[in-house]
Amino acid sequence: MVIAVLLFIFIFFLKGENIFFNVLLPIQKSFYQLEAPSLSGDEFYRQLKIENVKLKKIQVENEVIRDHFNFLDKTKDNSVLARVIGQKSVAGFKWLLLDQGADKGIEPGLAVVDQNGVLIGVVVKVKDSVSYSQPIFDQHLSLAVDIITYDPLTQLPLENDINNPGIVSGIIQGEYGLTLKMKYIPLDKRINIGDAVITTGLEDNIRWGIVIGQVMEINKKPNDIFQEVIVKPLLTPNTKIVSIILP
Amino acid sequence: MSILKSICLIFFILILAALEFSSPLIPAEVSLIFILTILFLIKSGKDKIIKHILLISICGGILLDVYSIFSPGLFILSLILTIYFCYKFLLCKFDLNKSLSIFVFGLAAVLVYQVFILLISQFFYLINLSDLRISFDKFYWFALFQSIILNALLITAFSFVVRLCKNWKSDCRFLDNFTF
Q: A104 and A17 share a domain?
């Protein structure tokens, strides 16, 4: 029992967990990789096909990384590229494991984006060499967001607010791991299907303007104080390479 | 319990942890380390609790805690308390030679495990050890239902396979007596 307690203190308070990360990270990376298409054919062509598939895997990975750099070039963000090496779900909480940690400047609360710059999650916990990201679909994650509303005919911002024309603010939350619901939008605000949803910049380490999705459905009930909006996320599903945007 | 067996078991638990968190084939709600613990508990039977179970609970719990966003100690405590509860109160009520009985025992064990996770996480939230609070909404019940069914099915399947292998081994030994 004493040994167990000492082990516990060593692992969780004296950074002993880094031993597990260093040992298990290569194994985890080999499991959680980009998928290769299946092979068939006789031995000679089979070898060629195997080589071809390996090259295609590298090509796909290069294209994803190039997309990341293209996006980051345009926005001039400081960022860290990371691989998703695992995921887990317990008691309704879902999280992703990323292979970069505090030693690269990552802190809790940072935005995690895919190769197109679309928000896919928020960093919730950081260790020296790994970090944990909660996906935006997780119902325990709430984010302050803005809807950019435009009149579809004139393409001018709708006059929802004198100080911020064309912007409606609210809170977004995941549902069933599939959709996003934006709540607490005042009933008098006009929103159109197809309007863009972006981050509002009010979260500590997340800047304004990171794309989340598009308005898909508007729920307005006569007796309610607020209206709700279903948002279609624009993220790339099953992303294996992500960027963490540094403050 | 020999040192070599313990080291092999620890390596096996490390590989299981890597598989559990990183294999895209394994659903996120399945806990391989928990399943291994329950299988050892079923194997040990109602008479005694073997030291391997404690080793798996502690090592497996540490790994689950290291790779989770919850506060450290949640999974270690949940595993150890679940094993103790199952050994003391549940094992005597089930016939571990029948698959249906093992399935129901698996359902009960997973439910107990999830209840302990819930209670301990709420306690950690109360004493400010953690910012994460499990809320009793429809998503929690949905995730709970998925977790119970998947883990119980896997416990039943693996224990069935283990029993099949044991029976096959004993049949082979029986047949050896008849060779000339």
A: no
Residue ranges in chain A whose pLDDT is less than 50: 161-162
pLDDT value for B40: 87
- What's the ipTM? 0.79
Q: Which residue from A23, A85, A90 is facing B117, i.e. has the nearest CB?
A: A90
- List the domain range (segments joined by +) for residue A210: 32-247
Query: Any residues with CB less than 8 A from the CB of A138 and at least 6 apart, and which?
Result: A93, A94, A95, A121, A174, A177
pLDDT of the residue at A113: 92
Closest CA in chain B for residue A83: B22
Alpha helix stretches (DSSP H) within B23-137: 32-44, 51-66, 74-85, 99-126
Judge whether residue B180 has pLDDT over 50: no
- Is there a single domain that holds both residue A131 and residue A20? no
| Chain A residues bordering chain B (beta-carbon distance below 8 Å) | 4, 7-8, 11-12, 17, 20-21, 23-24, 27-29, 31-32, 85-95, 97, 124-125, 132, 134, 139-140, 175-176
The tens digit of pLDDT for each residue in A209-232 reads 888 988 888 888 778 888 889 998
How far, in Å, are A69, A75, A113, A143, A242 from residue A236 at the CA level?
Answer: 16, 19, 10, 19, 10
pLDDT per residue as tens digits for the range B20-34: 888 778 888 889 999
Q: Minimal CA–CA distance to A84: which of A128, A121, A44, A32?
A: A32
Residues A66, A26 share a domain: no
Verify that A17 and A128 share a domain, yes or no.
Answer: no
Question: In this structure, are A16 and A90 located in the same domain?
Answer: no
Is the CB of B67 less than 8 angstroms away from the CB of A88?
yes
Query: CB-based contacts of B5: which residues, under 8 Å, 6+ apart?
Result: B52
Question: Into how many domains does chain B fold?
Answer: 1
Residue B179 has pLDDT above 80, yes or no: no
Residues of A in contact with B69 (CB under 8 A): 93, 95, 124-125, 132, 134
Residue written as token pair 């197809």: A194
Band (pLDDT 50/70/90 cuts) for residue B109 is very high
